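Our consortium's second objective concerns turning raw sequence data into structural hypotheses that experimental partners can test. To show how far this objective has progressed, the report includes one record in full. It was chosen at random from the queue rather than selected for favorable results. The single chain below, 171 residues long, was entered without modification.
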Amino acid sequence: MIFETSPSLASFAPAFHAAQAQMENAKKDSKNPHFKSDYANLNSVQDATMPALSAHGFSVMQGPGGTDGSNGGKAQVTTLVLHTSGEWVKTVASSPLTKQDPQALGSAITYLRRYSLAGMCGITQTDDDGEAIFHQHLGETVDAAVARLAIGIAREGVERDQVDLARRVLE
């Protein structure tokens, strides 16, 4: 993967920091029947990132491409995050193609767009259930969180010093 930036990120960095603070992780809203798993599709990643990026003066361009090769060729996506200041960050990601047909190329490009945008923005994919449990416990006091953690850890036979470490981390 290639990563490049404009010569200065003096305006980009604080604006990007503010945008990231408003982003949520992408929701796993699609099913992959081949792997029997859920994943966040490109729309979900864009929904999680674009409103915050736009609100802080950013736009995103993603250009598809590819290379021919004796071992199947590669799909490629260039992702450029632009700021109204003129500053920018760019990545180029590529992936081998498993088949030489338009469907394989389109799938690989969509995959690269999704992972490039999520990676550039520092978001992950979350389960709605896990996210709900996390938010349910946000209002807990440190003591309540440690108590709940200690009970769970005790069931697993974890030592007391690890519970103390968890307390220090939470405080």
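The partners drew two points from this record. Residues 129-138 have pLDDT under 50 and may be disordered. The chain is about 45% helix and 25% strand. Both points have been shared with the crystallography group to help prioritize constructs.
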